[in-house]
């Protein structure tokens, strides 16, 4: 059987354009800490595609954050038959430029991921073929078509395509392609999608509807990771892990069997289930990130289809206290730029962060990612700053005209807030409170 070669390239890392925020980031470790973690994560999507690749294809995996012309020439010299790109929206224009360069050397270019799924017609201008939605079914078909000289410009696993990938068919990602020494954590996916479907979210249903991975497969993936790394730190590549509480408890029972620390994203409903919190603590969960979104109840109205988050607002403080009382730190995520935001919102956000005793916080700018409800709303209102603003989709750069501020006023208020909440002093204060909670918990257990 003829042998082929495919190079999978992850366009990792995101660059903030706002010069004042960039300057702040150089001196405020709390501000850059989370972005550094995200940039250091391998592309689980590409590693998953690698596991669904036929045996007659040799796979190379590469991450291009900071790269040189020599790096590009090295890839060309390896003479891959196909280069498959995965890129965040913020780096898609850079990906298009690289793809154009590789195509000039006769290399066929494949693109997939969130942005390409949202904007397939745009991506097809720079690629020989694009994959919309989940890649596990489309990728093997694409490779077979390539071998026959019949590569199609478009492959889709979205609902209208008639294809639906069942996670029971999933294979273990090719973690063996990684140089483990370069990472401080690895990614593992247990669920896809999120049923809340917030109007600004670019991930909740773009690739897949909400679905859970079989526990037996998760166990095999953990065994694979532990075969490469004795005591890994694992970040779950989930949008909302603990939606199904019964399944979640079984997942946590599995996790508790492995000597690992881990992090994930979920929603505030975990605070309503004491048994789940006990299992979270027993399974050595280091932290959960919860999207509180805003510190004003009015801002939560119509944020998701069922107004679920709005109904939770009055429980925010108690939920945070309860979760952290189990020794699980909470990273609170807040977004600024909603139409309900005023100058006062920046003050209440700072006050909420302090009064809630959150261990960590993540504050970002509202960003209209392509094909979201927010994107179409702002586009219809002629409020987007430009047609192609993809490189500014960093979560820290303004991309549209806010309702109650000028762009300059919004950026100034955001910068001032960041300068205050991400000082080393405030970061230490948040950490020290959580340490006191852990100490009290330990004393309670020992008495």
UniProtKB/TrEMBL annotation:
CDD domains: Radical_SAM (cd01335), radical_SAM_B12_BD (cd02068)
Family annotation (SUPFAM superfamilies): Cobalamin (vitamin B12)-binding domain, Radical SAM enzymes
Coiled-coil ranges per UniProt: none
Domain Radical SAM core: 180-409
Alphabetized InterPro entries for the sequence: BchE-like, Cobalamin-bd, Cobalamin-bd_sf, Elp3/MiaA/NifB-like_rSAM, Methyltransferase_Class_B, rSAM, rSAM_horseshoe, rSAM_sf
Alphabetical keyword list: Iron, Iron-sulfur, Metal-binding, Methyltransferase, S-adenosyl-L-methionine, Transferase
Gene3D superfamilies on file: Cobalamin-binding domain, tm_1862 like domain
Cofactor names: [4Fe-4S] cluster
Keyword NADP assigned: no
Domain B12-binding span(s) in chain numbering: 20-153
Family matches, as SMART domains: Elp3 (SM00729)
Keyword Iron: yes
Name of the protein described by the UniProt record: Radical SAM protein
């Amino acid at each position: 059987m003829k042998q082929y070669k495919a190079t999978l390239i992850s366009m990792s890392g995101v660059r903030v354009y706002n010069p004042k925020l960039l300057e702040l980031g150089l001196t405020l470790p709390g501000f850059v800490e989370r972005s550094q973690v995200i940039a250091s994560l391998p592309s689980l999507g590409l590693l998953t595609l690698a596991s669904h690749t036929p045996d007659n294809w040799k796979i190379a995996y590469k991450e291009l954050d900071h790269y040189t012309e020599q790096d590009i020439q090295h890839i060309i010299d390896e003479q891959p038959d196909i280069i498959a790109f995965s890129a965040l929206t913020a780096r898609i224009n850079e990906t298009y430029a690289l793809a154009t360069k590789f195509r000039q050397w006769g290399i066929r270019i494949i693109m997939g991921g969130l942005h390409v799924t949202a904007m397939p017609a745009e991506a097809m201008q720079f690629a020989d073929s694009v994959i919309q939605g989940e890649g596990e079914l489309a990728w093997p078909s694409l490779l077979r078509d390539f071998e026959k000289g019949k590569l199609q410009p478009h492959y889709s696993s979205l609902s209208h395509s008639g294809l639906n990938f069942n996670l029971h068919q999933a294979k273990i990602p090719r973690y063996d392609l990684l140089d483990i020494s370069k990472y401080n954590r690895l990614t593992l996916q247990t669920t896809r999608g999120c049923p809340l479907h917030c109007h600004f979210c670019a991930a909740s249903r773009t690739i897949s509807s909400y679905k859970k991975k079989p526990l037996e497969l998760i166990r095999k993936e953990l065994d694979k990771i532990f075969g490469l790394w004795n005591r890994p730190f694992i970040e779950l590549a989930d949008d909302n892990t603990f939606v199904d509480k019964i399944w979640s408890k079984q997942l946590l029972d599995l996790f508790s069997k492995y000597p690992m620390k881990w992090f994930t994203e979920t929603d505030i409903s975990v605070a309503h289930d004491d048994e789940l919190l006990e299992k979270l603590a027993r399974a050595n969960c280091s932290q959960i990130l919860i999207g509180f979104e805003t510190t004003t109840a009015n801002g939560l109205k119509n944020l998701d289809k069922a107004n679920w988050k709005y109904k939770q607002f009055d429980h925010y403080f108690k939920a945070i206290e309860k979760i952290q009382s189990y020794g699980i730190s909470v990273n609170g995520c807040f977004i600024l730029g909603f139409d309900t935001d005023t100058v006062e919102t920046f003050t209440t956000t700072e006050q909420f962060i302090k009064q809630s005793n959150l261990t960590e916080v993540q504050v970002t700018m509202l960003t209209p990612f392509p094909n979201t409800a927010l994107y179409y709303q702002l586009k219809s209102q002629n409020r987007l700053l430009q047609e192609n603003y993809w490189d500014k989709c960093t979560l820290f750069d303004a991309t549209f005209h806010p309702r109650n501020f000028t762009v300059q006023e919004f950026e100034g208020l955001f910068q001032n807030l960041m300068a205050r909440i991400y000082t080393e002093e405030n970061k230490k204060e948040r950490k020290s409170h959580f340490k006191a909670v852990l100490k009290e918990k330990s004393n309670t257990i020992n008495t």
